[in-house]
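Annex B. Sample input.
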Amino acid sequence: MNGGVTTSPRAFVVRIIVALIFTVLLGRLIYIQLIDDSYGNLSDQIQYRDVVVHPPRGEIYDRNGELLAQNRLCYDVSIIRRDMSKEGFDTLRVAALLKMSPEVLVKRIKSSPYRVERRISTYPISVEEKLLLDELNVAGLYTSQRTVRQYPRKIGGNLLGSISEVPEEKIRQDESYSAGDYIGREGLELAYESVLRGEKGLIMQDKYAPLDSRNTVLKEPVSGRSIVCTIDAELQQFAEELMENKVGAVVAIEPSTGEILAMVSAPTFNPDEMIIGRERGNNYMREQNNPRRPLWNRAVRSRYPPGSTFKLVTGLIGMQEGVLRPHYQYPCHKGYHLGGEHIGCHEHRSPIDLRYAIATSCNAYFCYVFRNVLENKKFERAKDGFDVWREYVDSFGFGRKLESDFLGEGSGYVPTRQFYDKMYHKSWNALTLLSLSIGQGELGCTPLQMANLAAIVANRGYYYIPHIVREIEGQDSLDRRFYERHYTKVDPKHFDVVVDGMWRGVNVDGTCQGAYLRGWDVCGKTGTAQNPRGEDHSTFISFAPRKNPRIAIAVYVEHGGWGASMAVPIASLIEEKYLTDTICRPHLVEYVKKTKIAYPMYDRKKR
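Annex B, continued. Sample output.
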């Protein structure tokens, strides 16, 4: 027997067959990989693209359910250069639809990555433009849905804010944003961005299928939540009309809740002109270069001297400190005169008590009260009295932010002892600071703070933090701070006397009788704030009715003159509109709208 290994003929044949099959497969693989590109083309043809789905932004409603900010459907246009036909496309027609020059379109296509999708439309296109683009059937061009804002009433520019593309700095700070996303800019749109924006989704889509078919959802988009704000749209629009061609602000608050009923910064702008689109940049630069600064929200940011409206605070502090009783009388002979100090006043009978001093806005009376507060015998020095006075003022919300839900809120300004020590080299006393007693000097406050003062007096000593949002979709309540009462350091029992004086000022013999509304017991206090750069500022705070007040308001008109001349009629008309839902004094509306106010400090900048 042979000891070697033998191979049967059958096994040999099997090996030959396996080798031939392997050789054929290897040859075919080499052919496919190196010679035949049909499979590569097929791979491209069935390739899918990941599409980011931008969620609809939460809409904004007024307190009565009317839409203030809503969404409009539009489309982004993007390109994958690899998918474009070698024969090209009608560059002129596509460029015309995308509102760009053919040269810019070609440049953007050439600079786009070969295999990666890149947006080429600078701005979204409309539904109509999208349909026209679809008719061209351009290979490699894709559209994806998104929404942009529109503002039905065209009001509340500073209040609502606007939408813009997210800046690069924000993208670096927050990885949830990416290039091409939209973000709130100023106003409610920014303050409640986290609520309104929603969450982006992601789908895997056949490049050659309609957007709504053959899609694999990788992540569902989450729509932004809607907001019901506190604003009364009709009242807001009426207030903006009254403030046309004026510079200043209006803030109206519901005292029982702190809800802001109207917030006007004048001049304002049309929020529809700031939506994402081809003209946004031009519109923004126009408003940015306007010397009257319509993009600056005076209602919450500007620092104004409160003028005579501040006398209410001076009187209340005097009563709380025990240096003033309502029946105390002081003389006024066209002002306060002591040594070298003189603060003028208009002519009225003398002497007068607290109620009459409030009604007639006597300067001298409150100079006496202020001195008595600071020079109280319980203080070692007037400077110690000033520190106590300042604590009272702080409790009324002056010199600090009120912590509203409105971004950009200013703090106003109340000077400190250190400020005066530096200014007067530590040599000062109550006489030095007399102008503070009547809301002048270094005092500064925002119109929001002034409206809050009106709400404090209306509530007899407390306020709710003013806020602009009433309800958030899917949320049971707001931040608890908006439901808490904030009390001043003055006992509520002292407020009735001040309310009496404000009521007399409107209804009997005061400086604001133009605010009278029959049957509504309006209470008010005028202010004429001195302005070293021109005509005095006109201001007025008010609430109505006297019992169970429904509205508290502050109006500030730069260069408006006496408080009674411009701020009073504007506030009175707004109160009438809100309380009665009508206007029975069209002649007063006409007077307000036709009154021209000169603003040389702004208008000279145009030249």
